[in-house]
Amino acid sequence: MKGNILIIEDESKIARLLEMELTYEGYTVTCATTGREGLVKALTGEYDLILLDIMLPELSGLEVLRRLRETDKHTSVILLTARDATPDKVSGLDLGANDYMTKPFEIEKVFARIRSCFRNRNLYIESNSQKESTMLVLDELAIDPATRVVEREGIQIDLTPKEFELLLYLIQNRNQVLNREQIINGVWGHEFIGETNVVDVYIRYVRKKVDYPFKKQLIHTYRGVGYCIKENNK
């Protein structure tokens, strides 16, 4: 089997389509039709990825995501959103969603997003197995890839999964100016379907937590080129 996927979707036609297509592709699929049922299954089962609708009865998808991320920061979550739900997309990404799909969607694009999430997860697992006890340090910033703990000046910083992956990619390529395409490929995967300005959005999120509360700036912008993490004196 390719992996375990939980679908939390109250629209029966969409849920059935996703279940049939994903099962045919070799995934093990579990379904839930309400936010409360989905949250219980997400917290008590073992899933590699969750497809989570935002508009759900009993508990909204965003509330399910918020509660899930209190105890589980690693399971990949792809939000299913309405076409005009931009605020919900932003809120979902802030809460720790890995990606989102806008309804109506093409099933092949769903497969591509799922493969991208699985590939990033596998790369992370492989990286951890090779660097299980390796702490990455830049100036007073320290990142432990194995435990996903981030500290600066001894203060622990809470990052969403995608924020962590972005910061990890930057520090693994420290002192190098990375363009948006490189960052997209390194963090979201080659099959990412979306706008490259997602990089700018997430750089801003990470800066708010990692840079702005401290005196030294580590993440630098190179206008028209990209971004680089380095010490000020480099």
Percentage of residues in strands? 15-25%
* Shape label: globular
* Largest sheet data: 5 strands, parallel
SSE run: EHEHEHEHEHEEEEHHHEE
CATH structural fold name of the largest domain: Rossmann fold
How many domains would you count in the coordinates? 2
Give the full name of the CATH homologous superfamily of the largest domain. Response regulator
- CATH class of the largest domain, anyone? Alpha Beta
Major sheet: order of its strands?
2-1-3-4-5
Helical content class: 40-55%
Q: How many beta-strand segments?
A: 11
Q: Whole-Å distance between the termini?
A: 47 Å
Structural class: alpha/beta
Number of helices: 8
Instruction: Give the CATH architecture of the largest domain.
Output: 3-Layer(aba) Sandwich
* Uncertain spans: 127-133
What integer value in Å does the Rg equal? 18 Å
Q: Roughly what is the average pLDDT, rounded to an integer?
A: 86
